[in-house]
Every structure is written in C-alpha cells, then in structure tokens.
Amino acid sequence: MCCIVAGSVHDYTLMKDVFTPGSAWFEKVNLWLDLGFLGADKDYQSTQIYLPHKKPRKSKKNPNPTLTPEQKKQNRKQAATRVIVEHAIGGMKFFHCLMHRIRNHLGHFVDYFFSLSAGLWNYKIC
C-alpha cells in the first residue's frame, strides 16, 4: 500500500499516523532511523532501534560540545547502512513521475508509478 503525503509533513508525525505507537508493528525487525525520528525508541517496540547520536547542545558548562570518537564511529556505520536506502529512493525520483503531483482519481495508479519506478531503478543498477 502506498502512502502519499505532502513533503511538508514531518517523517515522525507520518510514522505515528500510519503505525500506531504502542502496537507490535516492529517487534521482530531492526529499525534504522535518522535524527528526524527522535522518540521512536520510546513509542515503538523493536528488536533493535538504531538512532544516531545527537551532538550535545552548546552551554556555559560545555562551550565546545562534540561527540566522542566512538559515537562518531557508530554514526558513520549507521549512515553507511542508511545511505543505500536513501540512494534507492533518490534513484526512483529520477523518474519524474514521483516528483510531481499526480492528478488522477484512480488510487491504484500511484502504486503503479512506484512499482514501475522501483523496477526500472533496480534494472538500471543491476
């Protein structure tokens, strides 16, 4: 099923609308999320939730906040995993039918666009 929303909708807000917090949606899978999903570890149960470490805020006590080398290493490892998915989504947008508003009343028509774009992109990268 395809869920099309405006680009102005925040990712985590959309996730909470589609997948009800507290339910068992992600119990048996690992979640690789970015910092746009802060709070998902409290709202959802999962085998493992991978969130990058957030840089601490600047304050009087900590005027030069930085992440530890271990945290930076973990963030790079997570980013290397997530970038594969991000490139696949970006590659599907290469086919401009996904970037523009589709003015069609047939709901399944949008699903065809996604399926065709994913198939063509997979064919291109093989």
Automatic annotation (TrEMBL):
InterPro entries xref list: HARBI1_dom
Record's keyword annotation contains Metal-binding: yes
Keywords for this protein: Metal-binding
Biased composition annotated in UniProt, kind: Basic residues: 52-61
Residues covered by region (Disordered): 51-79
GO molecular function per UniProt: metal ion binding
Chain ranges of the DDE Tnp4 domain: 37-122
Entry cofactors: a divalent metal cation
Keyword Cell inner membrane part of the UniProt annotation: no
Protein name: DDE Tnp4 domain-containing protein
Source species of the chain: Methylocaldum marinum
